[in-house]
Amino acid sequence: MASTIISGARSILKLAGKKVALATGVSVNESVGFEPFRPLDSVAIVENIPVTYDCSMSADQVVAVGQDPTQTGIMPHVDLLSILTQPELVAELYDAVSGTLVLKVEGVMLSSNNRNFRAGQIAANDLTFVARLVKSSVESNPGITPSAGGGNPTGSGINV
Known about the structure:
The chain is mostly beta strands. The chain has 2 helices and 9 strands. Strands 1, 2, 3, 4, 5, 6, 7, 8 and 9 form a 9-stranded mixed beta sheet that branches. The longest helix has 5 residues, at 80-84.
């Protein structure tokens, strides 16, 4: 029986519905910001009030000659109109063994692309994204248990 524990070797990253080719890692961050409430007559915090929800994503990918994130529409061309009109994307992380959606990140937009070229190492793109919402597999598929599958995650490679 296959393990239900996912690893990088069995993870598939899709961006805008297309598999990200040459991806070597992905990180998704969620945070809730709190504002401490102190009444005028006290120095003690009475309550921490949630005031913000923030999320972001970063992905690592090896660099291939002749392939660039602007060619795939993930990064806008460097002109004002392209930057102002770049679309929001959806990122999805799948378990390649079961086909189950593990994580969905909505409202993804590339904010930076850091390229690294070093002696003795494979060149890499470090892509950083802003996002609006992160959903677990349960939140993305209400009424469907993770073991029920989520379709076939394989697809055409997208060369970011």
